[in-house]
Each structure stands twice: as structure tokens, then as C-alpha cells.
Amino acid sequence: MTTRHLVDPDFLPLIDLLPGNAFTREALPAIRVESENRFAFVGAPPIAPEIKVIEGEGGPLEVYWYDPSPGTSGCAALLHVHGGGMVIGSARSMQQGPSGMAAALGIPVASVEYRLAPEAPFPAQQNDCYAALKWLAANAEALGVDPARIGITGESAGGGLAAATALMARDLGGPALAAQFLTYPMLDHRTGNEACPYANPVTGEFVWTRAHNRFGWEALRGDYAADDARKGWFSPSLAEDLAGLPPTWIGTGSLDLFLDEDLDYALRLVKAGVPVELHSYPGAIHAFNAMTEATTAKAFTRDLLGAMARMLRI
Predict the structure, then answer these.
(1) CATH no. for residue 38?
(2) What percentage of the chain carries pLDDT values higher than 70?
(3) What is the pTM of this model?
(4) Domains in the chain: how many in total?
């Protein structure tokens, strides 16, 4: 069965633009090059980044800093985490998203160049994102940032890592986050494998499939058993307690592979007493917002930026 007839026609070109390459360890280097080259044609970001080098667990860690008003103080700020299924993508090549947020909201945005799996399995990515959050909070005054108005955001794997970083910040005593903004976040390592708790027949056919998901999670997992107190940092859907997390915005597509885990996570947050704003966009596949001029993509952008402005008190 195909779900192509359910896809919003505005998003059909995306299926051909982002073909479902078979992910293997042997093919991964070529897939990474293809991904980097695709973003090279996007053009210059609205705000050029300043690359800051901070101390990470694995050595020097690059943070791309987009500041629309250098010298301003007391600003809200965002830590951005790029997507790529844990195995591809980079802050260097994926500048349009965080730069666009900085320009639209008038606040600084930091995008972290975290390590990728399988070369650096769990918890490398999570530790890199947490290191960037700690750096942003510790240097808030020098960066012109109000430490009480720092949010975290990410797309796909970046959304999952943003959720994991929020859990780490809660569990490890800070830094406090004002909000988390999760765009079709990759939260549940079981999705698409034999332990999958969801049986949705219309999700995950395009762009990011069940096979892709199995590869990404297996690469991230390495030899980690996911049976200790860190299991929610690895796969946020495994976190047993979601109480104490910051107010949350979640946006996903009705045909996205991650729809079910995102809806489940939102409901669990609500039951834990966390304020949640949830959007499911009809006919939307994974990465649908890349079609920026599509009506539904425009609605998504308005919803996300509006929530950021409201929740960070911009």
C-alpha cells in the first residue's frame, strides 16, 4: 500500500528531492557528502555565524553563534540542534534554520556541531549538546543573554537530542530551560523495529523510513543496553518520569514516521503537569517544512515562531 495519495500536493516534490537512500555503514560516507552538497545550494544564511570553540567531552566543540544585535544585553536565546538521524548533517551546512530563527525573532541562536554516530555512539551527541547548553548559560552575561530565557530547539534527530538535553538538565541540576521546541522529534528507538509499540499503517513511507530509523538508532546505540538511569537520555520515550521538564511545543506531520511517538510524548508530558502545545499538520511528511512556500509549511513556521516569542517572552 502506498500513502502517496494522502500527501499534501505541495509536498510531493520533496519525495523526489530527498530520495530514500538505503543506509549502510559502507554507504554512509557517500550519503553524508550528498547531504552536505544538497545544503550547499540553499544560499547564504540571513545572519552569518561567528564560530565559537568551547570545551566538549571529546575535545574542542564548535558552536555556530547567530547574533542579530551584537552588544545587546538581556536577550532571550535558543540552543539549536540540527537533524540528520544521528548519522548525517552538520551545523556547518545546515545554517538556514538557526540563522532564520535569529533573524525572525531578533534573538541570538547557538547551533552545536555535535559528534555523529556510529563513530561516536551514545552518549557522545547528548554530552555535546549538554556541554553547549552549559556554555550558553555560564556565559550568558558576556553573550548578552538572559539566563532565565534560554530555550532549546531541534528538528528530527535534533528534536530528540533537544528533548534528551532537557532531561539531562533536569536530572543533573541545570541549567534551567525556559522552554523546549521540538519539530517532528526522533524520540523512540523502538519505532520501526520488532519492539515498536505503534502500528500506524500510514506513517513513514517517505523521506525517513522505518529502515532509516533502525539504522540511525542502532548506530547511536552502539553497545549501550538502554537499561540504566540514562535510558531516557538515549531515547526520551523511555524516560519513566517527565515531571519538571520545561513548557513544550511539538510540531509533527500526520504522515511522519515519528507521529505516534510524538503524540505519545506530548500526552505523557501533559499527564506529568508540563504545559504542552501540540500541532499535527495534515498531509505532511518528514521534513515537510523544507518546502517553505507551501501553505502548511507557512502555518508551521508561524506556529513555531509565535510559540518561541510567547514562551521566551520576546
Answers:
(1) 3.40.50.1820
(2) 99
(3) 0.97
(4) 1
